[in-house]
Structures are given as structure tokens and as C-alpha cells.
Model the fold of this input.
Amino acid sequence: MIEDWTPVPKPLFTVRVCINKRLNTDKLPSCGGHGSRGVADLLERMIMAERLPASVTRGPCMNNCLHGPTIKIQGGAFLSLEGDIGPDQIEKVMAEIRAESERRKSMPPVPAKPPLP
Ligand code: FES
Done:
């Protein structure tokens, strides 16, 4: 029997992580080449552990390849990790996700649509 179980909050916003990986025939960097897939997995686990109302979406290039891994928080920050996926950068991303979560919690609820006549 599970006694301490509480449901994970419904995702209110997404955290989009670019996981594009180039074949590198053009010698340009890509987020996938800088470890963004691992960053996406790590962020997903941290969001679940903190029970934040966010979900991670793995997406295509956001035209910020030279400064990636690139992360876009829906309705919030656009983050460029500049090739650094160390603990400090991950904590910076999590701080932005927490801030967006708090901002959304403090927003008034969307009023229900009136019934059709
Ligand atoms: S490869 Fe990630 S922004 Fe272009």
C-alpha cells in the first residue's frame, strides 16, 4: 500500500531543450554535441524530484547554435549555456524554472468561458 503518494502536479509549462546534433560536416557546434541530451534528462529528473509543474520537451535547433546548449522556458527565460553543462549552470537553469513556476502559481486562474446561448 502506498501511503505517502501524492500526484505529480499537472504540467503548466514546458522547458524546451534543443537536442539537435549535427553530423559536423560544416564544423559548426550543436547543442547535442555539447551534451544537451544529458542536460534534458537531468532537468527532467530534477523537475520531478522537486515536483515542479513543468515538463521537458526535447526539440530541434533554435538558431542559437554557437552559444548552446539552448533552453527555452515557456513564457520565461531563453538560456544559452555556452558549452558549459556543469552543476552551476544546471542550478541556474533550475532557478529559472523555479521562478517561472512561482510566477505561474501567483497568477489568477483563467476564468471559465460562459456557456453558449
Ligand atoms: S543546435 Fe541547438 S540552437 Fe542550433
The longest strand covers residues 13-18. The mean pLDDT is 90. The two ends are 48 Å apart (CA to CA).
